[in-house]
Amino acid sequence: MGNETLVEIVRTHPDYQEYHSPEFDRVLEAMLRVDRKDFLPEKAPVEVTVSYLIFSQMIQAYNVLVSKDETDDIKGKAFAAMLSLIKMLADSSIIVIAQPRDSAYDDNPLKIGYGQTCSQPSLVAFMAYWLELKEGMKVLEVGTGCGYSAAITCHLIAPSGRLVTAEIIPELEELGRSNLEAHFGKEGLERRLKVIPGDGSIGLETDAPFDRIYLAAGVDESFDPFKLVRYLNPERGILLFPEQKGDLIKQIYEKGNLIDAKRYGDGKIEFVPLLRINTR
What we know:
Shape: globular
Number of helices: 10
CATH architecture of the largest domain: 3-Layer(aba) Sandwich
Distance between the termini: 46 Å
Order of helices and strands: HHHHEHHEEEHEHEHEEHEEE
CATH topology of the largest domain: Rossmann fold
Oligomer: single chain
Number of strands: 11
CATH superfamily of the largest domain: Vaccinia Virus protein VP39
Structural class: alpha/beta
Radius of gyration: 23 Å
Strand content: 15-25%
Largest sheet: 7 strands, mixed
CATH class of the largest domain: Alpha Beta
């Protein structure tokens, strides 16, 4: 199983079937050029709650105990001890190591560490399609992550387009930059895109205006889209962002005015929360 298989899985997704068009085919062609496995860390630290890992084992141990010919007093003490231990550990956490590359070609989001994910490929494809990306555009991505979505965007706006991608988590900014340089080469990286550290959700005045701005993490009710709208192309621009739990939202602006807005997902979209420095 490889990247071509993953793209074929996306091709059979209901989104592709519904929105099938030459524009969507361009997105799949770009995905064929970006091997997802190359962008995933070999190992990713994932924080999980202890009780989820040990609860079933403790229940099994208790069942073995009560199946023996023990007194009710011993069984009662064992049950009380088990409940006490679960309560003590319920709010504790440990770090386990995930192997995201083992599932690189599955159409699922994959954990890349630091509470972040590499988004579901079929959703990455649909977002790229909905952004209406064309050759020569300037685009701002908020949330570089591992760089997978950024690479696809760069291919869709190539050869003269340019992407600016911002990542607030230093370790992921380094990972994304390294992956993108490995994919495009150092010269290609400098020519095609700029990876910057920091909070892209407040916009980037030095690189504005942008034809497209999109967020790769979910917003909550405090998110103000107009903080980014002012950095869009004043003639026409598209802002695309997902809710943490809800919909994917597409807004089209002309001369600073919202002229069209669409929602997708029927409330079933889920993204990791957008991390911001400035929430005012």
